[in-house]
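hiii, so i know i said id send this last week but things got crazy w the move. better late than never?? heres the sequnce for the chain we talked about at the cafe, plus the structure i predicted for it. fair warning i was half asleep when i ran it
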Amino acid sequence: MKKGLTLSLIFEAQSANYGEGFGNITALKRISRQGGDGYTYISRQALRYNMIEQLGWDNTPVEAMGSGEKKVIQYKPETSIADYPEIDLFGYMKTDKGSGANTRSAVVRLSNAVSLEPYNSDLDFLTNTSMAKRIDASNSIAQSEIHKSFYAYTITIDLDRVGIDKDVQCDNGEKVKRVTALLKTIQFLYRDIKGRRENLAPVFAVGGVYERKSPFFENRFRLNKQELCIAPISETIESIGENTLVGYINGIFKNDEEIKKALKPVVISNLFDQLCREVEAVYQ
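okay and structure toks below
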């Protein structure tokens, strides 16, 4: 059977993940590269949270384990992948006083979603003028970093491990149901943050179902003045030597015609439909 599914995606969003902050400034999560450019990112934990929530899988029972103030929230020892898709696909660590730690590594792995355009230190100034006027009070001012950019992330799925955990094994129909549900959620993913609902649905995607479990297209996306660099993507497709799917929403990037000519993309919905069919074929 083909063992791995990988998909690298690009979406456009604004200020979708904040860190600790300092003083009256709310800071975006970001990283820097040599040369001084800073790039904002949405953590893989944030992406996972939104996926699980929108799938309705955030109901796996948890408990606080440990003593005193050093308790750790974790899944209850009796939870099983047969009943809870969350721990099947995203793994678990469960501790039992009698048997010690019991772990399952993630079947679905996510990268951080890193911006493809550098952060330029833009700030939004926030006030509570409306509420302050109601009681004739002084106005408070806060600052929030803002950044609108294209972001890229990669998801990989170990298809041969879905629904299998020691002596527990789900039937193939359940495996198909879980993987295809996840793919459909990614197709229409969104994120609620600071009163906004950001659309994380992909405008470009490339990947497929392969013999190898490799994130082939991770770190292969580059933008140059709103143009998507084709060479790293097309050369990777050529090197794989297997059927790769490309999806794209027309009119997003300036080199629209070049993308269509070189990569021959289908519409995004067709890409996800085809991926779901290929997943079904894996488990037949």
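btw The longest helix spans residues 172-187. thought thatd interest u
miss u guys!!
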